[in-house]
Design brief:
This protein is an alpha+beta fold. The chain contains 18 helices and six strands. Helix content is 54%, strand content 7%. A hairpin with a 2-residue loop joins β1 and β2.
Length: 365
């Protein structure tokens, strides 16, 4: 008769996920000593050697804090790399339950989207909106995945110097939300241990310092720079920009670009692009008068109306299948793949792009 008892391996082993699979972690005496020195708890325990109770409490505190730090550094185990996800807002006869924002954040492949320049601004803007209002709605695994992807976003900016202003605004909104939740609302609204959130706040402050100290090189080793191009080409590049702050920053590069960036027709076109659809601004923007300071008008209208969002690539939503997915343009071009298992006769007619604001609204029940 077989023996039915406890697992022969005994509980208590610690496992670490690597590129080649799971491996068992073995801690030696010098490793534990290094961990204690890092946590600065040896000094507290050494002052009370005669009190065994205090030493026992210090040992438990050291173990607890080490576990919290390990949990904070461990990558989320519930992250998939799917290109699409079914959005369900209620139970039906065929399906039970509903899809949450955290589940979509875990299952959709945002890690690969960060490496794509067409999708980088989209993911950064989406993470900024989550940091402002939806951080507490995420589960523990989704919050861990959120900070893991956020680390990749910051690393992308530090390595490639790509759009640091947007990421600075993202980190500023995130640290403001965490300060508001911890000091005004209460720590009970955050999922996880307080030590984990303290480490995350320190990590965000470190990222902000690195971005503030970021030095973008101005000299190019080979090839032509922007100032070497003809004036009409530089002017066309300015007309292709839809962000007012990008135009202002580009105008600070050279005196010639400053003159081109202050062109009244450029700012009138920018007002027409962002605010011509608003009822109050339609007649004003489409007017032919030349007495209006369109740069001042742009920032005045910006205080009352949101600017139009423009991204190189976005998530798409199929109205026929209720599926949210990344659309691979290469597969669409060569294999006529719509990006998800669609059952419609004309899949392209059912697909619509989803802005970051619409993405958040999909999960508001």
């Amino acid at each position: 008769m077989p023996f039915l008892g406890k697992d022969w391996r005994s509980p208590g082993w610690s496992w670490t996920k690597t590129e080649h699979g799971w491996k068992r972690s073995i801690f030696y005496a010098h490793d534990l000593a290094d961990i204690n020195n890092q946590l600065n708890l040896n000094e507290l325990c050494s002052n009370n050697k005669e009190n065994q109770y205090v030493g026992h409490v210090c040992e438990l505190t050291s173990t607890k804090r080490k576990k919290d730090l390990d949990n904070n550094k461990t990558k989320s185990q519930f992250v998939f790399r799917d290109k699409w996800i079914y959005i369900q807002k209620g139970s039906t006869k065929e399906r039970h339950g509903y899809c949450t924002l955290g589940e979509a954040l875990n299952r959709l492949d945002f890690s690969s989207a960060v490496r794509d320049l067409r999708r980088f601004n989209y993911v950064a803007k989406l993470f900024q909106l989550i940091a402002k209002s939806q951080l507490t709605s995420l589960s523990g695994a989704a919050q861990k995945n959120y900070f893991n992807i956020l680390e990749k976003i910051v690393r992308k900016v530090l390595d490639d110097h790509y759009n640091p202003r947007l990421v600075k605004e993202l980190l500023q909104d995130l640290i403001a939300t965490l300060d508001s939740l911890t000091f005004h609302v209460g720590k009970s609204v955050l999922v996880g241990n307080v030590n984990i959130w303290m480490c995350r706040q320190e990590m965000i402050l470190n990222w902000q310092q690195q971005l503030n100290n970021l030095q973008i090189p101005t000299q190019i080793s080979c090839g032509k720079s922007l100032i070497d191009l003809p004036l009409h080409t530089q002017n066309k590049i300015l007309y292709k920009l839809s962000d007012a702050y990008d135009i202002i920053n580009l105008g600070q590069a050279t005196p010639t670009l400053h003159i081109l960036s202050e062109n009244r027709r450029l700012w009138k076109r920018l007002c027409h692009f962002h605010f011509s659809g608003k009822p109050f601004c339609r007649n004003l923007v489409l007017s032919t008068t030349d007495t209006v300071d369109w740069k001042v008008m742009y920032f005045t209208l910006q205080k009352h109306y949101p600017v139009k969002e423009q991204y190189g690539d976005t998530l798409h939503f199929c109205k026929h299948c209720s599926i949210l997915f990344w659309k691979d343009r290469n597969l669409t071009l060569f294999f006529k793949d719509c990006g998800h298992p669609c059952t419609a006769n004309d899949p392209e007619s059912c697909v619509m792009p989803i802005t970051p604001h619409h993405f958040i609204d999909l999960f508001k029940f």
